[in-house]
Amino acid sequence: MDDDAPRRQYDASGRRAAAERRREHVAGVAARLFAQHGWNGTTVALVAAEAGVSVELVTKSFDGKGGLFMAAFRSVGFGRRGTLQQAFEALHLEDEPDVEVRLDRFVEFASSIAVPMGPLVWVLAQGAEQDPLMGELVRSAQAGHAVVCEELVRLLATGTPAPDAVDEVYLLTRAETYQTLAEHRGWTPERYTAWLRRSLRAAVDGWGAGPV
Fold it and tell me: Does residue 107 form part of some domain?
């Protein structure tokens, strides 16, 4: 072999893509199993067996059961868009000059997340109580949600936002809110979407707000 000949560089992109597809597959399987069996009934071994991979691969890829659940939770809502903050930024609401169109886009986005995430919200609460890492991940996700709400209020306000706007928007856009209305009051996704739009506008503008 000629030592002076240019050496072919190894292209790892195919392997990385395959690993990412495998990770997405495992997260999807985990989401289904967590929804069916809850936190205690879903083990890393069960997910690995259903996904056709090793327990070691699942453990290393997701950093344990807590990381696996959070990946599953995000997968059903955000897909490849990553975290809530990343998915929200991908909407590019600031590029839309019409505030009402911004609101329409966000409501569609929020509904598309809340509906598939709904069946997993109670599992999320169970896991956070029992797994310290899970609790940390949940707190981090909640902090990210709050940041998104602050930015959303800024983007939707047509004047000075109502004093409690961010906190109200935070409550309105939690997946738990949709799931409660769906389970306890029989709401359809369409009814939730229409209500969410009205409620977000009222929260930002402070309609009906009075002295406490």
Answer: yes
Tally Cβ neighbours within 10 Å of residue 10.
Answer: 6
- Within this chain, do residues 67 and 89 fall inside the same structural domain, yes or no? no
Q: Are 80 and 17 in contact (CB under 8 A)?
A: no
CB 83 within 8 A of CB 35: no
d(CA 102, CA 97): 8
Note every long-range contact of 204-207, with CB atoms under 8 Å and residues 24 or more positions apart, other chains counting. Answer: 204/153, 204/156, 204/157, 204/161, 204/162, 204/165, 204/169, 205/157, 205/158, 205/159, 205/161, 205/162, 206/161, 206/162, 206/163, 206/165
197 falls within a domain? yes
Asked if 42 and 88 sit in the same domain, the reply is no
The answer to whether residues 33 and 133 belong to one domain is: no
Q: Give residue-wise pLDDT tens across range 117-156.
A: 888 888 988 998 988 888 888 898 899 999 999 999 999 9
Q: Is the full-model pTM beyond 0.85?
A: no
- Residue 18 one-letter amino acid: A
Task: Provide the number of structural domains found in the chain.
Answer: 2
Distance in angstroms (rounded) separating the CA atoms of residues 30 and 55? 13
The domain of 62 spans 12-80
**Of the candidates 70, 83, 78, the residue with the CA atom closest to the CA atom of residue 133:** 70
Is residue 168 within 8 Å of residue 156, measured between CB atoms?
A: no
